[in-house]
């Protein structure tokens, strides 16, 4: 089955592995098959900023560091990261409006200099369900809070949000098609949720209006990562 390149472009593979060697091996196996590679905290902490450029040789990079601090600190951290020109970068919406505005300003200035980076605000982690939120002191449903934070992220100048695909349709309706929805917590039917709480299948995530799907372990821990990615792409193609 031939996969439409516009479908493949929506699949982001999380390179959640401890070393450069393992990450580059995976990237080589998946190069040209998927749309983007995610460098997250594990790999960034192990290999540092310069390694991002190595991954970019295999494809566009989503740098998922979920920055969360006072506005000045986040803006300065972004200014240090933006010369890497990742396609996507994350901050936490719960750092607050002033932090998101400072981050959006730094990213806007980068784009005015010719950069391509888009800024996404993480709403409610897909590993959190209602019980975990209640223990954090919130009586809101995760979906309602994610939608509230998505509206706020848009007002503060973010280009989109990270949310569960369960919330993607509501975010699109409230914030518009151009405001991106990047959705982790993707699990093909019958695959264990592991530490994820708000999971959705690949085809359902696209039907709900996700801009990008982030998939880690179902691909990276499969005996044949390229075959696992192809199976997910085939499911996406049915949406
Ligand atoms: O709310 C969030 C935000 C980010 N993530 C990241 O996505 C991947 C998911 O990996 P799986 O192995 O497919 O569960 C991982 O890198 C997380 O850091 C998320 O899961 N939820």
From TrEMBL:
PROSITE patterns: OMPDECASE. One of its GO terms (molecular function) is orotidine-5'-phosphate decarboxylase activity. Signal peptide: none annotated. Pathway: Pyrimidine metabolism; UMP biosynthesis via de novo pathway; UMP from orotate: step 2/2. Pfam families: OMPdecase. Keywords: Decarboxylase, Lyase, Pyrimidine biosynthesis. Catalyzes the decarboxylation of orotidine 5'-monophosphate (OMP) to uridine 5'-monophosphate (UMP). Homodimer. This is Orotidine 5'-phosphate decarboxylase.
């Amino acid at each position: 089955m031939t996969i439409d390149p516009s479908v493949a472009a929506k699949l982001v593979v999380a390179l959640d592995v401890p070393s450069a060697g393992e990450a580059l091996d995976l990237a080589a196996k998946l190069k040209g098959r998927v749309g983007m590679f995610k460098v997250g905290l594990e790999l960034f902490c192990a290999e540092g900023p310069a390694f991002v450029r190595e991954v970019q040789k295999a494809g566009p990079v989503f740098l998922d560091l979920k920055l969360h601090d006072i506005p000045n600190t986040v803006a300065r951290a972004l200014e240090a990261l933006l010369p890497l020109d990742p396609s996507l970068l994350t901050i936490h919406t719960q750092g607050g409006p002033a932090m998101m505005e400072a981050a959006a300003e730094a990213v806007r200035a980068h784009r005015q200099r010719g950069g391509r980076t888009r800024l996404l605000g993480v709403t409610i982690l897909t590993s959190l369900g209602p019980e975990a939120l209640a223990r954090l002191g919130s009586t809101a449903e995760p979906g309602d809070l994610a939608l509230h934070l998505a509206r706020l992220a848009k007002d503060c100048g973010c280009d989109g949000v990270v949310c569960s695909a369960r919330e993607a349709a509501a975010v699109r309706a409230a914030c518009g098609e151009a405001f991106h929805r990047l959705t982790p917590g993707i699990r093909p039917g019958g695959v264990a949720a592991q530490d994820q709480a708000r999971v959705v299948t690949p085809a359902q995530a696209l039907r709900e209006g996700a801009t990008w799907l982030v998939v880690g372990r179902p691909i990276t821990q499969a005996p044949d990562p390229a075959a696992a990615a192809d199976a997910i792409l085939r499911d996406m193609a049915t949406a």
